[in-house]
Amino acid sequence: MRVAIAGAGAVGRSIAGELLENGHEILLIDKAPTAISVERVPLAEWLLADACEITSLDEAALQRCNVVIAATGDDKVNLVVSLLAKTEYGVPRVVARVNNPKNEWLFNEAWGVDVAVSTPRLMSALVEEAVSVGDLVRLLRFSHGDANLVELTLPPEAALAGTRVGDVEWPEDTSLVTIIRGTRVLTPNKEDALEAGDELLFVAAQSREEQLEDLLSVRRTDA
C-alpha cells in the first residue's frame, strides 16, 4: 500500500516508521527544509514541497496513493490537504490529524476526511479507558455515516456476562469488531461467550451509543 504523509515532524515520522515496518510504501512531504531528515526515516521517499499546492501533489503522484495522512501541526493545512487529496486525486482513504479540539467539527466528509484523529481527545479517551469499567469510551470518529470506534470493559455485574455473542440482540447500526481478553485479541463469532473484564470494541452510530452502554453495563433483574 502506498501512503503519503503531509507533515514530516515528529508525528509524521513516527507514523511513517510504523507503516514501513508493516511493509508499506511511504512518501513524506514537508515544505520546511529543516524537516527533511532522510536519515531519520531512510526507507521512506521524501519530497520538499508545499502539500497545499496542486503542483506539489502532482509531483507526489497523489493519485497513486491508497491513503493520505494529513499530519501537520496546522489544522488549516490538514483540511486543505484532505480536501485536495479526496476531490482532486480521488484518494480512497484520507486520515487527518486534529490539533485543536475546537476545530474537530470541520474534519468531516465535506472536507474530504474519512477519519479524524484528535490527539487531545484520544489521550483523554485512553485515560478514561484505563480507569473506567462499564462506561462507554469513544476512541475514534469516522466521518462517513457518523460512526465512532467505541470501547467498553464488561463489568462483573453486567447482564450479558456469560452470554454468547450470537444470542445478543445488539442495537441497530452497531458492530462488535474485537474482543480483547487479557493478552488475546479475539475476532468475535456467534459461539463466543462474553466474560467479565472483556474489552469490547464496536463501530457504532453515535445515536446508538447510549443504548449500547445500557445493554452492556446494567444487570437487569426480572420483576
Structure description:
Pfam families: TrkA_C, TrkA_N. This is Trk system potassium uptake protein TrkA. Keywords: Ion transport, NAD, Potassium, Potassium transport, Transport. One of its GO terms (cellular component) is plasma membrane. With 223 residues, this protein is an alpha/beta fold. It contains 5 helices and 11 strands. It has 2 domains: 1-117, NAD(P)-binding Rossmann-like Domain (Rossmann fold), CATH 3.40.50; 131-214, 2-Layer Sandwich (Alpha-Beta Plaits), CATH 3.30.70. The chain is elongated and about 55 Å long. Strand 9 (174-181) and strand 10 (184-186) form a beta hairpin. It has helices spanning 10-21, 54-59, 75-87, 119-131, 209-217; strands at 2-6, 25-30, 45-48, 67-70, 93-98, 115-118, 137-142, 147-153, 174-181, 184-186, 199-205. The relative contact order is 0.10.
Could you name the key traits of this structure?
223 residues; alpha/beta; Rossmann fold; Alpha-Beta Plaits; 11-stranded mixed sheet; K_uptake_TrkA; Trk system potassium uptake protein TrkA; RCK_C; RCK_C_sf; transport
Task: Offer a concise description of the structure.
The protein has helices at 10-21, 54-59, 75-87, 119-131, 209-217; strands spanning 2-6, 25-30, 45-48, 67-70, 93-98, 115-118, 137-142, 147-153, 174-181, 184-186, 199-205. With 223 residues, the protein is α/β, with parallel strands linked by helices.
